[in-house]
Specification:
By secondary structure, the chain is mainly α. The protein has seven helices and no strands.
Amino acid sequence: MLEGVPVWILIVVGAVVLLIAALAVSWFVFGRRALVRRYLIGLVGRRESVRASKRTLEAVMRHLADETDEALTHFAENPAAEDRRSLVEVRDQMRVLADELDTRPMPSRLVRVAEELADAAFVVAEEAGRISDDMEGDEVFSALAEIDLGRVATQAEEADHWIDEARVEYEVEDAAVYGGGLYI
């Protein structure tokens, strides 16, 4: 079959086949790395959403701790109170984000990262959602006492750990994503 074919043609064809194979492997390795980096940058941006919601929840709790009895009564009896609206907004945003992260396809390397971030969003939503619109009076105060900011902080730290580990591995700088303003 290859009888009569000059050796130099076989060498050229072999070299071309090896070059194509090397290019395909390089494209797969570097292309996959670029894809993972792109998904990771998106997760870093979503982490900022979780952090902002966490800060809002903490700020509401600090604000309520400093309030007068009259202001706390207004909070407990009025579902339209500013702090209650803030908690509802945080709850709703974090529920949407948790659902998105739980259902969005991810490169296998980032599945655990996305799961941890979804868990952080879920915990923020759950804690902010302890007070609902249909609660009044003592029921609101009881729910307020059940809000566990330590649980929120622990889960957020866990998500940060996984994201930071992936950022180091894929050489993604936080400054490329977030530097005083979100660039995504």
